[in-house]
Amino acid sequence: MSENNHQSIELFDALVKPIEGQMIAAVWRVLRHEHDFDDAFQRALSNIWDHLDPIREHQHPTACILRICLNAAHDTLRKRCQRERHETENTLSDEFIDTKRDGAEQLIGEEQENEILAAIATLPSTQAEAVLLRFTEDLTYLEISQVLECSEASARQAVCRGRDKLTSLLLHLRPRTPIERIS
How far apart are the C-alpha atoms of 48 and 56, rounded to whole Å? Predict the structure, then answer.
């Protein structure tokens, strides 16, 4: 093994090992699907390896690595949503119908989660990343701005615009008030 390659492995380990749990959590929170997670996480690790020098020189290497992870997860989510949309257009299956209430409630929960993820996948990538960082990773706007490499005001704006778009896209999922139910 060459000295250069050995140094790259040491740098990779030094950058990734301390935050590996955060990386896994960030990708999993976006995808929540084992096969997609594996693909996205491997793609993120590969991208990190390919960009070791710029990451090392970055002002916030951890933020840079998390952004790479979120980008990989978001790309995978978009592909999954496109694939599912294509499959749904081609065939409708009765196997999802469950007459049991518990099964129906579980199916509704999964459908709503998939619908939320699909809505996030339609957002511009900066807005999707900002929303995911804010609401799944619970990062501050300052931390989001570091990950997105923008000003704190731009991070706030991306979160706000993404949240507003999601609100309009997912309005039908909002629980109705008793008065609305009567009408």
Answer: 10
